[in-house]
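tool_call predict_complex ligand=pyridoxal-5'-phosphate
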Amino acid sequence: MANVKFYTGEQIPLEMHKVRIIQRLNLPNVDERLEAITQAGNNTFLLSTEHVFLDMLTDSGVNAMSDRQQAAMFLADDAYAGSQTFFRLSKKIKEIFGTEHFLPAHQGRACENLISRTFVKQGDIVPMNYHFTTTKAHITEMGGDVVELLCPEGLEVTSDDPFKGNMDIPALQSFMEEKGDKVPFIRMEAGTNLIGGQPFSLENLEQVRDICRQYGVPLVLDASLLADNLYFIKVREEQCKYLSIREITRRIADACDLIYFSARKLGCARGGGICTNNEEYYRLMRPLVPLFEGFLTYGGMSVREMEALTVGLEETMDEEMINQGPLYIEHMVDKLVEAGIPVITPGGGLGCHVDALKFCDHLTQEEYPAGALAVAMYLASGCRGMERGTMSEQRRPDGSEVLSNMELLRLALPRRVFTLSQVKYAVDRLTWLYENRQLIGGLRFTEEPEVLRFFYGRLEPTSDWQQALVAKFKADFGDSL
Ligand SMILES: *Cc1c(COP(=O)(O)O)cnc(C)c1O
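tool_result ok
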């Protein structure tokens, strides 16, 4: 995105790329949408894309690749062991993060599996700014637990705090004093996913590093959403104004003992990996790669994706590349705020996060307001978002619900995928939905998996509210889609 002034004074994000390959989309009518979401058990994860108009489920594995990434895929070196593709990727990672060792894995959660198996044992507690669903699942799988020490501003829906993903430093300090002996590592998540793609500051990360040094525990960075976080540090953190993206990346990497990432997000490809300068950690984790992922020079990734990742990581060092997501999101957030729709501010990375607790303030958290809003948004628009609230939590062993801190409908804007008119359409339909929000009812599970239930659990509406919403849609839009 370029900083171009419009003569009219209008401010819109202007792309520094052009579209060269397109994919035809289908917009089912509202009756077909009701049929599709019912078939999908009222879970947007279970929709088939043939029934989805704008897929705002996630940015995972669906960011648009550049021509250079696609070109690089043709030059991949297919080899089970010792592939040149792997050496090119490790070299790029070393150049960017300054890390000697790289363990490839098939995606982000695979890295979490390797790290948790190596470091977490029964009774351990991992402090973090905030959890991610798969991170927590892998740590608890090993008998550990997570404690979130997010700064208090992080959970305020409306805010102008630039770094809502920061760790609460005094809270971390006192936690370590009390329970430091149970802590295998401290985890920081860049572009904190579940609280609206909110960044941490470099200053905060370096303070966390100091505490890690003081207590002799490693600092682990989840760099899956690093691209957005880098951009926010560059534009929001005074002390980093004159640093290049490359320099900021190196400062971040230097503070951490282990860096892992999902390349489904970082680098606009598919895959993942763990980087470190610590020989001992590398040796501890290494045997798990051939066991769970694949040989050490591919780790479950396709060589083509690895080539695309190598180029994607280099492109992540380009500010005009990584600002596309955040600037589009900021634009969408501004339009929603203008329409009076409750949404997380300031805009973060990854997508636009609608506050379902406020949007559906007539529903209780046990009725899954964010899940219900995701279903209602699909009915109103054919846009598929993702529930990030109580449904994404796991019940306690006694069967009681863990009520999420936030109830969010996340409308992800995968990088370089949508046009401004499509964003405008989503805002329009959400505005209609907000005016008819009283019609939205709750959901309850009919099939509830024990682990990560949001992925494939099935639900039903608690009343016939969906029919009422569809009837109102037809009354307002006539035969229109
Ligand atoms: C997506 C994500 C992961 C998991 O990565 P996958 O590639 O989906 O397994 C872990 N952490 C964060 C912050 C993520 O956004």
